[in-house]
Give the backbone structure.
Amino acid sequence: DGPTSIKFKIYGSESGDDSLWSSDFQTVEMNDGFFDYELGSNVPLSNDLFTGNDTRYLGITVDTDSEISPRTPLVSVPYAFHAQTVAAT
């Protein structure tokens, strides 16, 4: 519990070294092993990060530990981020 240093990364593959975005380490409040962090709140997400049909994967590193494996596929809701940048037709 308490403040914990966590790094979030978005990748283009489930296990490759193709990082597309990184939050760098952020201090996140941990409570019973749970935390809340809005991706892009400190380091903006690029407008084209979720374009196309490619699956993106979230990697999480806590303190000095190795990145948690396996990475988590980002589905559905994160792709709504792209909808903010699409012009209405």
About this structure: The chain has a mean pLDDT of 87.
